[in-house]
Amino acid sequence: MNRFKSVILPPLVPLVAITALAEFIVRKGIVKSYLLPAPSSVLRAIIENWGELTRAILSTSASALIGFLLSTVVGISAAILFSSSRPMQRAFYPYAVFFQTVPIIAIAPLIVIWLGYGMRTVVTAAFIVSIFPVIANTLTGILSTDPALRDLFRLYGASPMATLFKLRLPAALPQIFTGLRISSGLAVIGAIVGEFIGGQGIGSVVDVARTQQRVDKVFAAVLLASALGLALFALINLASFLTLRRWHASEK
Amino acid sequence: MPGAALCLKNVRRAFDPAAPVIHSLNLEIIAGEFLAILGPSGCGKSTLLRMLARLDTPNSGSIQMNPTAPSTAFVFQDAHLLPWRTVLDNAALPLELQNVAREERHKKAREVLAQVGLAEAEKLIPGELSGGMRMRVSLARALVTNPELLLLDEPFAALDEITRFNLEVQLRDLWRDRGMTVVFVTHSISEAAFLSNRAIVLTRRGGGIKLDRTLTLPAERTNTLRADPRLGEEMSTLLEAMEEE
After folding, report:
1. Does residue A209 form part of some domain?
2. A247, B84: Cβ pair inside 8 Å?
3. Is any Cβ of chain A less than 8 angstroms from the Cβ of B205?
4. For chain B, which residues make up each domain, given as ranges?
5. Using CB atoms within 10 A of its CB, is residue A178 exposed (0-12), middle (13-18) or buried (19+)?
6. A153 sits in which H/E element
7. CB atoms B82 and A149 under 8 Å
8. Contacts of A155 in chain B (CB under 8 A)
9. Does domain B5-71+148-243 have CATH number 1.10.3720.10?
10. pTM
């Protein structure tokens, strides 16, 4: 009960207030319903289009998740490679930054030209926007390993592999999870952008509803997309908690 | 295992060629002795220790060791444990890195943990230990390979006094049981006098030897020795050499 009052209740208050306010101003005609749909009509749109929306969100989830997993695997591997030598880092890191700065909406049409319409394009878009935070955070984590412990591993003749897996990667886990948290939200955004241009899923539902002036359906789709982002974020948090709770201050 | 003997000849180490940390050091470390190295901050104590551990090499001069590559252990100022591992797996780490089988390394780790009084704590992780207990684990980790040369870099500096007193007695006992060579770097005069059989005081700059003294205290050292006037005498000799610097 106490936990309900202190943790769950506070964020619920603005939610209820804003929803009620939106319902009120739309019903009173202060704001036209074709600009802002009343929350009740968004709810109705979700129920009426349930089949279409669930198919769409499942498709978006799959693409975002695959893009995110690719980012995790490729990003951590790239960071390990960069950390292995200075010249390697100098040669390739600037191009990794490219993933951070590329305007995905501008190159999405290019991806469609290369990969065609469908999931491959959507996954690629999700991957491109979500990989950089994994690389940057993992690299920082690996490079900031305690120098005394590195000395200790050298003293006992540890192989580079043993140093990587028994010291550098575990020590970098808190930073790796920080990267994954940022990256998970970006993967969902990337997938939806990809779907706008070249795929099916929540992105294309939004695009079609927009051309039909169905603002209530746009809102319904956006709500589900946000829920997907939140769910992925919660999943990473859970994994981080289970991994780090015993030893790292961030999860105590 | 018998201790290692070391002989340093004209050792020079400079990170900046104009201002060598160690200018030209000659030092003989006898097998099985407990040597304390005293000196003000920045006098090159830690640099010297890293060279003895073969983690760093001199720019010129030589360091001869007998045996040529003695098994060496290093204890840092802080415990530097792996926070995700249990006490047992931290103590067993050096053996693990040397690919000793799991059963064998756990057996040895339990032995050394018992010797430092941590037999009950093997399942805990570092975050659940006090500072003194963490340092004990660090000591156990250093001893688990049965080193011929044990190097310690101000290991007890961050601990409260009573914990430090007890750990000093324990370290001294461990040394007497094992016969390894110990090189102990500290800036504490009382610690150097209480622990060592021989103490050297380094000069403020250039890593020269200001004083090289063999102490005349009894081999058995317990906390009662701390109030002994003989310890006080040794301390004033060391203090005098430090002050002239």
Report:
1. yes
2. yes
3. no
4. 5-71+148-243, 83-146
5. buried
6. helix A147-155
7. yes
8. 53-55, 72-74
9. no
10. 0.86
